[in-house]
């Protein structure tokens, strides 16, 4: 999204699809060839450990990417598969990798919305959720899973989706943060799949932790992770201030706010920007700062309470 001058984005990510790259000892990554305005250069899958390894986020329903991942671990044993969340660019390749390796799948659970849908809401097409996904082993915040030479701790990071987990490797100060934190762009938070209230609380949770090198679901690794998270928190608070500034001029709707706030936005991201504004408005309505008639929905009009 545009007007993010306050966040030090890094869009330098020369990794080619299908190539395995050791980014740190014990951490390899393979890029899927699914570039888009939402996925940047594509989804990044991670291989953790050597010899006996875990795969994080097998990626979209993509045979070539599954083959590249399996090729990268040829001669090794895949003992665990982890999934950060159930969007279609992260989890649908899981059955292919599981079938080839026999490894059990660890995740928070099946896809679910952050809140019940309101009557007036149609299904949000941007969500791209994988409703077929079911993990073998459900894990929750604080659960630790150990393999050969690695140890991952589940960190609940709802917001982008309700079931989003990050996987921290505390001894190495690494955190595999999925789509909750990305170095190339801000994350999309689209209700009812996503929740800004949850998203902000999850940023605070990450900022309070020790891990300082983040491996993201899209784009390059993020050094000084906690510092970067503080930039994101400031950015979201600035976005909220922009919304309130516009509402101070009188009652308005979401498309008007998007035009006022996201100057020069890629037209393909306008719908996503609208849902991001809605996520902020849900939070503001819940806090009693903004009012609307009925439920806070994408087609509503909003005013200062």
TrEMBL record:
Any GO molecular function: hydrolase activity
Pfam families according to UniProt: Lactamase_B (PF00753), WHD_BLACT (PF17778)
Keyword entries, A-Z: Hydrolase
Domain Metallo-beta-lactamase: start-end pairs: 42-218
Region of interest (Disordered), residue spans: 86-134
Annotated SMART domains: Lactamase_B
CDD domains: metallo-hydrolase-like_MBL-fold
Compositional bias ranges of the Basic and acidic residues kind: 116-134
Keyword Hydrolase: yes
PANTHER family, A to Z: ENDORIBONUCLEASE LACTB2
Protein's recorded name: MBL fold metallo-hydrolase
């Amino acid at each position: 999204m545009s007007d993010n001058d306050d966040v030090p984005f890094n869009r330098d990510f020369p990794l080619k699809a299908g190539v395995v790259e050791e980014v740190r000892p014990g951490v390899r990554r393979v890029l899927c060839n699914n570039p888009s305005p939402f996925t940047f250069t594509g989804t990044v899958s991670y291989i953790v450990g050597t010899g006996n390894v875990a795969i994080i986020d097998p990626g979209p329903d993509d045979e070539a990417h599954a083959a590249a991942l399996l090729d990268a671990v040829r001669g090794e044993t895949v003992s665990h598969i982890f999934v950060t969340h159930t969007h279609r660019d992260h989890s649908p390749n899981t059955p292919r990798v599981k079938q080839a390796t026999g490894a059990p799948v660890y995740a928070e659970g099946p896809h679910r919305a952050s809140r019940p849908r309101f009557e007036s809401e149609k299904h949000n097409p941007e969500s791209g959720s994988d409703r077929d996904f079911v993990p073998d082993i459900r894990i929750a915040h604080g659960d630790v899973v150990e393999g050969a030479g690695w140890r991952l701790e589940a960190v609940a990071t709802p917001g982008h989706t309700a079931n989003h987990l990050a996987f921290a490797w505390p001894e190495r100060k690494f955190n595999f943060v999925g789509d909750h934190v990305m170095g190339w762009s801000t994350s999309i938070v689209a209700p009812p799949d996503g929740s800004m209230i949850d998203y902000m609380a999850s940023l605070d949770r990450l900022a309070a932790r020790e891990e300082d090198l983040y491996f993201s679901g899209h784009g390059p690794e993020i050094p000084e992770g906690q510092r970067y998270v503080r930039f994101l928190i400031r950015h979201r608070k600035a976005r909220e201030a922009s919304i309130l500034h516009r509402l101070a001029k009188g009652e308005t709707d979401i498309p008007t706010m998007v035009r006022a706030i996201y100057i020069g936005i890629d037209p393909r991201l306008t719908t996503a920007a609208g849902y991001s504004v809605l996520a902020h408005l849900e939070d503001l309505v819940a806090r009693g700062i903004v009012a609307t008639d009925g439920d806070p929905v994408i087609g509503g009009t909003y005013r200062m309470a």
